[in-house]
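quick q for whoever's on today - can somebody do inverse folding on this one?? i tried earlier but teh output was garbage lol. tokens:
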């Protein structure tokens, strides 16, 4: 069979019970990969060849062309986002397609919400003063029209479109500066691809870190908590002032409904939902009547029904039977259909389901009383949470809306609740707690104020929030941010963002927080 070396040169060496592959390496070291019943290991008597790992990586990378991937892979834009947020470009030589010099003073913050890809960037074009704007990243310039950005108000603050593929003979549009990213990369495309696949590309770009990220991680648990409690109470107070202002016009009860419906509208539909609560005629209605009036005012009852004889049609007909009696008297209140933003709404949170739920609250004669009793309930926070959930979900159930996303959608068998625990928590911290706080403050009831404040401060965190995550990256940079247990901590972060980050530019100019944190830390030493 020859020497070990000969057998190795032949590429295959068999030993009883295992199949062993041996290969020569450039450095004449032996590389051995043994597979025994599916388990791989390296022999301990042969050195692992130099540079093998790098070579394997290169085999993969040489099979991938950056351009090809960018034109076919769904991850394509993710890589462009990395290149942009880490500014892997030659920043001194940039110019737009029309030849104007371009300076990126800050690339902006990557947004995971609907709208432009990067928000709040700071750029300078030609001799113009620096401009705070959004950045849209598209594979080609046509993305602007194909993705319906043209005329979309969400994109009106876009100051620069960044593209990857520039079509031949493309004529730059007037009024929309475009940067052809590919022309200004700071490294060859292949090298950049390697970087895109590395952990570096996933790391937090320096531009994201706020000036305070030097100090936040040094705060003691106590100091951080004091800061967050103060910020959260400012938020609670300012929300309670807002509700008190509504109550001056509408009374406390209606003010609560107005703000609850706003909360049900999420960010996209808070205004039309608020409007529905404002104009809803205050009489005693049955649940079906209330749903008909609210959906009628929302201009959501279908004008044409399908030919099918099903529960969907039956319910819509019942709504029409009620709505047509009231339509004339409420004409001035009817909202235009176009006011509803549905593009980034999950079917389960469709405004029609939210409106149907609101009708349950508006027609429950005990709703406010029950809420008041709940506020003084002496119980654990867990029990308070589940009691509030029971109070806000439809008491009798809802045979239509628990099985439909919209008035036109097909019935689904398994019932879906009209409200979830996360929304209940959001409504508590944003509406219910501030509403009670405003009222107890008004009647100078310090005991009741303390009670609601305690509940507010011990309410557990609700779900994830992209704004909070971005803020924590800015505050903590590469240091892992603390894991929050309480909703007030999340509220505090939102308050700091709106008080400081939103009032300065993305480079944190004039933000007083870092200096004051530095002084606190200094005085604590
Ligand atoms: S603006 Fe202020 S609070 Fe916001 S990240 Fe910058 S330094 Fe921090």
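ok took a stab at it. sequence:
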């Amino acid at each position: 069979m020859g020497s070990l070396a000969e057998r190795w040169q032949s590429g295959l060496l068999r030993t009883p019970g295992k199949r062993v592959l041996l290969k020569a390496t450039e450095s004449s070291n032996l590389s051995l990969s043994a597979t025994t019943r599916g388990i791989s290991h390296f022999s301990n008597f042969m050195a692992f060849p130099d540079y093998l790992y790098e070579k394997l990586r290169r085999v993969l990378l040489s099979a991938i062309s950056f351009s090809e991937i960018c034109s076919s892979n769904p991850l394509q834009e993710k890589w462009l986002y990395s290149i942009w947020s880490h500014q892997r470009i030659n920043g001194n030589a940039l110019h737009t397609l029309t030849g104007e010099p371009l300076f990126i003073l800050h690339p902006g913050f990557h947004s995971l919400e609907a709208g432009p890809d990067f928000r709040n960037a700071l750029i300078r074009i030609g001799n113009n003063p620096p401009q705070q704007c959004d950045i849209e990243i598209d594979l080609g310039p046509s993305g602007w029209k194909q993705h319906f950005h043209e005329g979309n108000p969400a994109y009106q603050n876009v100051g620069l479109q960044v593209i990857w593929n520039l079509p031949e003979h493309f004529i730059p549009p007037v009024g929309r500066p475009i940067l052809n990213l590919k022309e200004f990369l700071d490294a060859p495309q292949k090298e950049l691809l390697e970087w895109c696949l590395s952990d570096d590309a996933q790391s937090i770009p320096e531009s994201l870190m706020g000036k305070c990220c030097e100090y936040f991680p040094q705060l003691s648990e106590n100091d951080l908590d004091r800061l967050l409690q103060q910020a959260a109470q400012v938020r609670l107070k300012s929300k309670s002032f807002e509700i008190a202002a509504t109550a001056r016009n509408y009374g406390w009860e209606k003010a609560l409904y107005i703000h609850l419906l706003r909360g049900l509208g999420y960010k996209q539909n808070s205004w039309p939902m608020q409007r529905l609560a404002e104009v809803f005629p205050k009489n005693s209605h049955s649940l079906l009547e209330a749903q008909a009036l609210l959906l009628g005012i929302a201009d959501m009852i279908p004008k044409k029904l399908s030919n099918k004889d099903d529960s969907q049609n039956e319910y819509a007909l019942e709504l029409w039977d009620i709505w047509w009696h009231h339509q004339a008297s409420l004409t001035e209140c009817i909202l235009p259909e176009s006011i509803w933003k549905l593009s980034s709404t999950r079917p389960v949170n469709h405004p029609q389901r939210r409106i149907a739920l609101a009708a349950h609250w508006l027609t429950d004669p005990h709703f406010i009383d029950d809420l008041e009793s709940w506020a003084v309930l002496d119980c654990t926070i867990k029990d308070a949470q589940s009691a509030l959930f029971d109070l806000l979900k439809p008491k009798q159930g809802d045979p239509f809306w628990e099985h439909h996303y919209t008035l036109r959608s097909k019935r689904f068998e398994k019932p879906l609740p009209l409200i979830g625990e996360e929304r209940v928590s959001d409504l508590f911290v944003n509406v219910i707690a501030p509403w009670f706080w405003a009222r107890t403050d008004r009647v100078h009831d310090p005991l009741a104020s303390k009670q609601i404040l305690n509940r507010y401060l011990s309410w557990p965190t609700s779900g994830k929030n992209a704004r909070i995550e971005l803020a924590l990256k800015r505050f903590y940079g590469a240091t892992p941010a603390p894991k929050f247990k309480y909703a007030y901590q999340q509220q505090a972060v939102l308050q700091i963002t709106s008080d400081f980050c939103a009032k300065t530019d993305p480079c944190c100019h004039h933000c007083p927080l870092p200096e004051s944190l530095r002084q606190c830390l200094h005085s604590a030493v």
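fwiw Strands lie at 12-15, 18-24, 30-36, 39-42, 102-106, 109-110, 118-125, 131-138, 158-163, 178-180. also Confidence is low (pLDDT under 50) at residues 1-45. so keep that in mind when u check it
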